[in-house]
Design goal:
Blueprint: H1 6-31, H2 39-58, H3 61-78, H4 86-109, H5 117-129, H6 134-145, H7 158-165, E1 172-179, H8 186-200, E2 202-207, H9 210-214, E3 221-228, H10 234-242, E4 249-254, H11 256-272, H12 293-318, H13 322-346, E5 348-350, H14 352-355, H15 358-369, E6 373-378, E7 383-385, H16 386-407, H17 411-416, E8 423-432, E9 435-442, H18 449-458, H19 464-469, H20 472-477, H21 500-509, E10 513-519, E11 523-531, E12 536-544, E13 547-552, E14 556-561, E15 567-570, E16 573-578, E17 581-587, H22 588-591, E18 604-608, E19 616-619, E20 621-629, E21 643-648, E22 654-658
Parallel strand pairs: 6-8, 13-22, 17-19
Antiparallel strand pairs: 1-3, 1-4, 2-3, 5-7, 8-9, 9-11, 10-11, 12-13, 12-20, 14-18, 15-16, 16-17, 18-19, 21-22
Helix pairs in contact: 1-2, 1-4, 2-3, 3-4, 3-5, 4-5, 7-11, 12-13, 15-16, 16-21
């Protein structure tokens, strides 16, 4: 945070936590069977009231006014004066998004820049106009429908029609109100008319839907929306239906202009929206942590012991007592190790810190796409190092968006497949010793193995022959290839495959791995395996010419001299056989492009564990081992194949650490 005092820093942290609590409680309120008696309404009201007061005390008047408006709207809902509707919840969420944006501005600049005036007016208008509840809205709808039961055009949002015809559409859009004689079989007549309309035009939708019409749920008339070529007029469409012997009367209106305006409004919204809409939500970062007093006391005591040990060491060295110096150095090492453990423990932060806003993201995307999704999070109290969590935010966000956008099918499609209309997405965190697994799984359409192969061949990622030899798990790995995608177009939310290479790079940069499992028609599961703490590992140092590199010892199975192994050539590649297994022999001088490297019989061979990669590495020499801190590269070097990061040794020497899996 830039230029922010300590009280403001505390205020920002507490406000961010309150906003996350508010978002999640609002989701509970929206899904509650009886919102007026739900515990969620009390939670959202309490948190909104708390935000209003805190903003006011800190002098952020605009933010306080926004929180006040949200609080008043929630008060009306709590008192039963207003009903919980999708539109009203959208308005509340919009206000919360602006509060979140203003908190970010306070964090960055110490002041707010967002003007919430327009949203506050909308909220106030909703309170004033809607206090009579849904009864008024229903009555208005009945009045508009008239005695004939004809649904008004406003029953189908223009945005939905725009989505039906698609942005590339260049024709005309019409609304036809069709009336039928009350014969007792008008629903059968209506189906004949729809079949005829399908032959002549492109049907967009009906009000009620086709199933309702087939069941006779339209009281003698219904609305039909169709699209046609540019040279077709409203009179042409009206004449077509008037000539149909099953239609008693028809009136047609051209609504093309409204659809085009909806496209324009959508583009303008995309360009100007800066209120933190969850469709463009960035993943959260952990900017501060809270520490128990006991941990602070423990840290202080360890630092005190270290200072005392340093004084003892200096005195011993001055007296040239090497034996006592060695004993004290060992004690100093114990203190350092204990201090390291304490600091690492303090840096641990629960996973929920970065995934707390995911339910809101899923809600907004699924609502926009007309999908029904039950999003569940389990095990989000597990703790990881703050730096790893910050790296994990974007990859997890991408996986969640993929699951919503491309994994879960629309409700109608799920019903046709015999699935529940509501899809399920789960985010599951589990602790496994010194590793953490975070899984994103859905019960959607799953990955299409043949489709992935076909696209990989088409994009030149693999050959047809290679494709025939791949098993399913190897096919799934293809989605991590840079730029690979099976979708024909990329949505504003995500593109299955697009960006997965970045997810892979980020996870590997923190010494993690990814596993994908999928079953066509049943869903997909993506698991990230990650370390709990920062990469402090023991490495083996090897030389390649005059250059020094590190290889994590946990990845090494055996070290040999080149003269003690038999090197053979298989299809032009150097190999070594060990226990009847053939291992490719990779020359580090070639792979790392180290100049002026002399190859000799006194070279060394490092065999990597089969569980990591079945390969042997040839180097000039092995020069020792040491426990080091690995810092991942950032910027252009991030995700560089074969390199997991770098370490600074005691004498200031920088050594690159090899990633044998991608070398």
């Amino acid at each position: 945070m830039v230029g922010v005092s300590d009280p403001t820093s505390t205020f920002v942290q507490e406000s961010q936590e309150d906003i996350q609590t508010l978002n999640n409680a609002l989701l509970e309120l929206e899904e509650a069977d009886d919102p007026e008696n739900s515990d969620a309404i009390e939670t959202v009201f309490r948190v909104a009231h708390n935000l209003k007061g805190n903003f006011g005390v800190m002098g952020y008047t605009d933010a306080s006014n926004m929180a006040h408006a949200v609080e008043d709207l929630l008060d009306c809902i709590r008192d039963g004066e207003l009903a919980v509707t999708g539109e009203r919840m959208d308005l509340i969420f919009s206000g919360v998004d602006q509060l979140e944006q203003m908190v970010r501005e306070i964090s960055d600049d110490g002041e707010t820049k967002t003007d919430p005036g327009a949203t506050i007016e909308e909220i106030r208008a909703s309170i004033e106009d809607g206090e009579s509840g849904m009864a008024d809205e229903d009555a208005t709808a009945d009045d508009d429908a008239g005695d004939d039961g004809i649904e008004p055009a406003s029953e189908v949002p223009v945005e939905d029609l725009a989505e039906d015809v698609g942005e590339e559409f260049a024709g005309e859009v019409f609304q036809a109100v069709l009336e039928f004689e009350q014969t007792g079989s008008e629903h059968v007549d209506a189906m004949f008319v729809l079949d005829a309309a399908d032959d002549e035009y492109e049907r967009l939708r009906t009000v009620p839907d086709e199933e309702g019409i087939e069941d006779g749920e339209f009281d003698g008339s219904f609305d039909l929306y169709v699209s046609a070529e540019e040279d077709v007029s409203a009179a042409d469409v009206e004449g077509f239906f008037q000539d149909n012997r099953y239609v008693e009367d028809a009136s047609v209106a051209r609504v093309t202009a409204e659809v085009e305006a909806a496209f324009a409004d959508e583009e303008e919204d995309d360009e100007t929206s800066d209120s933190g809409s969850s469709l463009t939500h960035d993943s959260q970062e952990v900017e501060s942590i809270r520490v128990d007093v006991e941990q602070i006391d423990q840290l202080y005591n360890q630092v005190e012991e270290m200072v005392t040990s340093r004084i003892k060491l200096r005195k011993i060295i001055e007296e040239n007592d090497l034996v006592e110096a060695e004993d004290e150095l060992e004690e100093h090492g114990k203190i350092t190790s204990s201090l390291q453990d304490t600091v690492l423990e303090i840096r641990l932060v629960p996973l929920k810190k970065i995934v707390g806003n995911f339910p809101r993201v899923v809600r907004d995307i699924s609502r926009k796409q007309g999908k029904e999704i039950d999003f569940q999070m389990e095990g989000v109290d597990i703790e990881m190092d703050r730096s790893i969590l910050n790296e994990l935010g974007d990859p997890l966000m991408h996986l969640i968006r993929n699951a919503v956008d491309h994994g879960i099918e629309p409700p109608e499609e799920r019903e046709k497949k015999g699935k529940p209309r509501e899809g399920t997405i789960k985010l599951i965190g589990e602790r496994e010793r010194d590793r953490v697994s975070v899984t994103v799984q859905d019960d959607g359409s799953g990955l299409d193995v043949e489709r992935i192969k076909e696209k990989a061949i088409e994009q030149g990622v693999i050959t047809e022959e290679e494709g025939r030899m791949l098993d399913d798990s190897e096919v799934y790995d293809l989605i991590f290839h840079p730029g690979f995608s099976t979708t024909e177009e990329v949505t504003e939310v995500s593109g299955r495959g697009v960006g997965m290479d970045v997810v892979n790079q980020v996870v590997r940069s923190v010494d993690g791995s990814i596993n994908v499992e999928s079953e066509p028609g049943a869903g997909t599961s993506v698991t990230l395996m990650l370390p709990v703490s920062v990469a402090i590992v023991r490495v083996l140092f090897v030389t390649v010419g005059d250059e020094k590199y590190g290889i994590p010892i946990k990845n090494i199975d055996e070290i040999s001299e080149l003269e003690d192994v038999t090197v053979e050539s298989v299809e032009g590649r150097a190999t070594i056989t060990h226990d009847d297994q053939v291992y490719p022999l990779l020359s580090l001088s070639d792979r790392l492009d180290v100049p002026d490297t002399e190859v000799g019989d006194d070279d060394m061979v490092v065999r990597i564990k089969d569980s990591v990669r079945q390969v042997c590495l040839r180097c000039s020499d092995v020069v020792g081992q040491e426990e080091v801190v690995i810092k991942p590269f950032e910027g252009v070097l991030s995700g560089a194949p074969g390199i997991s990061g770098a370490s600074v040794l005691g004498e200031g020497e920088v050594v690159m650490i090899l990633d044998v899996d991608t070398l």
